[in-house]
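Lab notebook page, bench 4
Experiment: in silico fold of construct C2
Operator: M.H.
Input chain length: 239 residues
Purpose: comparison with the prior construct
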Amino acid sequence: MRTAGRRALVLAGRGRYEDPWHDTAATSHEVATALAEVGVDAEVRGTFAGAFGDLDGFDLVVVNACAARPSLDPATDGDDAAWEDAFAALGAWASSGGRLLALHQAANAFQDRPAWAEVWHGMLGGSWVPGRSMHPERGRALFDVRDPAHPVTRGLAGPDATFTADDERYSYLDVAPEVHVLVTQRHDGVDHPVVWTYDAHGGLTVYDALGHDARAYREPVRRRLLQREALWLLELPSP
């Protein structure tokens, strides 16, 4: 297992992996700032094909990228061949003990080719399913802490093991049975996983479906949750 440290790479979706609904530059800045508050040195990079070449220099990779655009600009973003090494590097890094924190729309990232979609599901423990996954209108909502004893969620919620946040509530994701669910939300009478851990790929992953925009990351409870996820992945104590 990789030695725990304090250096994180935040991959902000751009070009091939950006969309019109998520300001990944703004949210990645909030993520990096939140990590710095707990002593984690975070570097933010856009999702260029060349951004994945030195992952062994980082103790944590944070994926804040989006689904691939339907029409690509190879001159700017690189063609499929240029991305072969990037996909292979991230997959190899994760499966060899890498610590991965995937945020919000990352459930839909890196799925533009079937081979990678299978690997990504294996790294994340779940994914967005076009035509089935959705979210109700954004607003303040109740979230249930399912494992209040876990280091990520211990002390996060009140005595009733719930907290509120103004954010999107991803629902009907495809979630592997091997994940360990930490937080859920209820929609249409169904409890939907929001935060989970996953270690079946040779590394360790936390997926967190919260974090639609910069405002969401400024909510104290959401910010603490993000920081606790990163510190747990790095095997560092939470404040």
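Observations: The CA atoms of residues 74 and 80 lie 8 Å apart. The chain is about 25% helix and 25% strand.
Next step: discuss at group meeting.
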